[in-house]
């Protein structure tokens, strides 16, 4: 049964849940990065995701949360808000930051801190064409399905890698984005 916006907000705003999620740390010397995990509080809540531009040198054409490297002097929240403003024109005053999800180390050497936030619709987004091909919303309902996400594997650089894939009619949602969505799903499913 899908959750309505009020129930999603209640579950995600619970300080005890957020503290347990944020306590999961990754020890890494990877490049520090942050992503904004924006939950849009429609009557049927969604996640704001992006399809990265096909011409990018890394992660081209992949589904991602708005985000990127943490610049010197920034904390993860500042970096996530700055990157969301740069990539999709999201006004940094609009997201209501709730806390952090578990950190994630990518296969490409980034140490990512996911910053969880709530957004009230409507959104007036303007994609940066050099970075984002499309911004789109992903229904939260699949995150509540205990049979999801699908677990897949592939050989990458001579080594078998395992990863999550979340269903979507148009886009392949996998990798770090899917792993962060799994963390959000765990938070929503808890209790």
What global shape is seen? globular
- Terminal CA distance: 15 Å
Number of helices in the DSSP assignment: 4
Give the overall average pLDDT: 89
Contiguous uncertain segments of 5+ residues = none
Q: Would you identify the CATH H-level superfamily?
A: Nucleoside Triphosphate Pyrophosphohydrolase
Explain how this protein is built.
With 191 residues, the protein is of the alpha+beta class. It has a single domain (5-189), classed as Nucleoside Triphosphate Pyrophosphohydrolase (Alpha-Beta Complex). The protein contains 4 helices and 11 strands, in the order ααββββαβββββββα. Strands 1, 2, 3, 4, 5, 6, 7 and 8 form an 8-stranded mixed sheet that branches. The longest helix has 15 residues, at 175-189. The two termini are 15 Å apart. The mean pLDDT is 89.
Mind sketching the topology for me?
Blueprint: H1 5-12, H2 15-22, E1 31-40, E2 46-52, E3 63-64, E4 67-69, H3 76-88, E5 96-100, E6 104-105, E7 110-119, E8 132-139, E9 150-156, E10 159-166, E11 173-174, H4 175-189
Summarize the structure.
The protein is built from four helices and eleven strands.
Defining key terms:
eight-stranded mixed sheet, three-stranded antiparallel sheet, 191 residues, coenzyme A diphosphatase activity, single chain, alpha+beta, 11 strands, 23% helix, Nucleoside Triphosphate Pyrophosphohydrolase
């Amino acid at each position: 049964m899908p959750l309505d916006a009020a129930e999603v907000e209640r579950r995600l705003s619970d300080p005890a849940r957020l503290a347990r999620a944020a306590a999961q740390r990754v020890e890494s010397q990877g490049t520090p990065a942050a992503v904004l995990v924006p939950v849009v509080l429609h009557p049927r809540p969604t996640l704001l995701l992006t399809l990265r531009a096909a011409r990018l040198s890394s992660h081209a054409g992949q589904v991602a949360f708005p985000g990127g490297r943490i610049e010197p002097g920034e904390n993860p929240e500042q970096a996530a808000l700055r990157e969301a403003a740069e990539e999709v024109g999201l006004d940094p005053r609009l997201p209501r930051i709730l806390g952090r999800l578990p950190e994630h180390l990518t296969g490409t050497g980034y140490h990512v801190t996911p910053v969880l936030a709530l957004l009230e619709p409507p959104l007036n987004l303007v994609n940066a064409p050099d970075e984002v091909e499309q911004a789109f919303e992903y229904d939260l309902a699949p995150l509540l399905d205990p049979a999801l996400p699908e677990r897949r594997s592939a050989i990458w650089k001579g080594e078998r890698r395992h990863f999550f894939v979340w269903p979507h009619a148009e886009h392949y949602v996998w990798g770090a984005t899917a792993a962060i969505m799994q963390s959000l799903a765990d938070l929503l499913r808890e209790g």
